[in-house]
Amino acid sequence: xxxxxxxxxxxxxxxxxxxxxxxxxxxxxxxxxxxxxxxxxxxxxxxxxxxxxxxxxxxxxxxxxxxxxxxxxxxxxxxxxxxxxxxxxxxxxxxxxxxxxxxxxxxxxxxxxxxxxxxxxxxxxxxxxxxxxxxxxxxx
Length: 140
Description:
With 140 residues, this protein is an alpha+beta fold.
């Protein structure tokens, strides 16, 4: 299976990229790099893709396992190399679960399944970055 994405230049430093979902995303450089900052930065978008991919896995498992979770967020903290081409050489992925009745073991299992088995974007990142996974519980 292949994905075909078209990314069209809008002028200046802005681009619009389509998606099989039918939605588009605007990509732009910041003012320091000649853009107007009216879009998402490409490298940061990779972190959103990583969190989004794994988040979908975990959300699906929360539903399947019938777990009670009031709030769920993923923080990705990435280190960018200093030399060009700059890339992420290490990424910390923090899964934050909030609730009054959290099943820590099952939530940890859901995260592990995503990280080790299901998330393709995680696998891609693994090819170039050191990953550190943290699962954090906030009990109400």
